[in-house]
Specification:
Largest sheet: 5 strands, antiparallel
Number of strands: 5
CATH superfamily of the largest domain: Zinc finger, CHC2-typedomain
Radius of gyration: 18 Å
Number of helices: 8
Number of domains: 2
CATH architecture of the largest domain: Alpha-Beta Complex
CATH class of the largest domain: Alpha Beta
CATH topology of the largest domain: DNA Primase, Chain A
Bound molecules: zinc ion
Shape: globular
Structural class: alpha+beta
Strand content: 5-15%
Length: 184
């Protein structure tokens, strides 16, 4: 997974406990800022997933997973695109924050910062693909479009894992967006 200040900022606007609620994961208060839950990633007899609300972080000691809100969403969702969709949904639930506007700002601000900008492009292309699919929800070909978009997500993930240069990433981003305008 790519890490950047953009990812951190966006994830900070979402509470880990709200993410637990979203997935219907029950948690128990353990005093102060501590909560615990059964690890949703495998079966266990005693709860080993710990949440610290003061840090807005979680750790599944059983399987050595953990981090922030978005890291949890990524563990729960099958694809990066699905995770982006949930991120958007939960972020929008907070009227005080508008992470999409924040992301747009970041894309502007990262123009001269190569790794940050590549990360921002990676995020944006996922959001654009999912938005495009949402707009075609009532289409007769919706299922067909879903599988095509899933293939695009795989292509996007694959591309960004290859550590592209900024120039390559921008070209790729533009190509994917142009592809959406004509056909998927
Ligand atoms: Zn576990």
């Amino acid at each position: 997974m790519l890490t950047s200040s953009q990812i951190t900022q966006l994830s900070r606007s979402i509470e880990v406990l709200d993410v637990m609620d979203y997935y219907g994961i029950a948690y128990t208060a353990r005093g102060g800022d501590r909560y615990e839950a059964f690890c949703p990633f495998h079966f266990e007899k005693t709860p080993s997933l710990k949440i610290k609300t003061d840090e807005n972080m979680w750790t599944a000691f059983c399987c050595q997973k953990g981090h922030d809100a978005f890291a949890f969403i990524r563990e729960m969702e099958p694809t990066f695109g699905d995770a982006i969709k949930v991120l958007k949904k939960l972020a929008k639930a907070d009227p005080e924050e508008n992470p999409l506007l924040l992301l747009e700002e970041m894309l502007e601000e990262t123009k001269d910062n190569t790794p940050e900008r590549i990360s921002a492009l990676y995020y944006f292309v996922g959001i654009e693909l999912r938005d495009w699919l949402d707009r075609h929800r009532s289409s007769d070909n919706y299922l067909k479009l879903c599988s095509k978009i899933d293939a695009r997500f795989e292509e996007v993930d694959h591309f960004f894992q290859s550590e592209p240069t900024l120039e390559q990433a921008e070209k790729f981003y533009t190509k994917v967006l142009e592809g959406l305008e004509t056909n998927v």
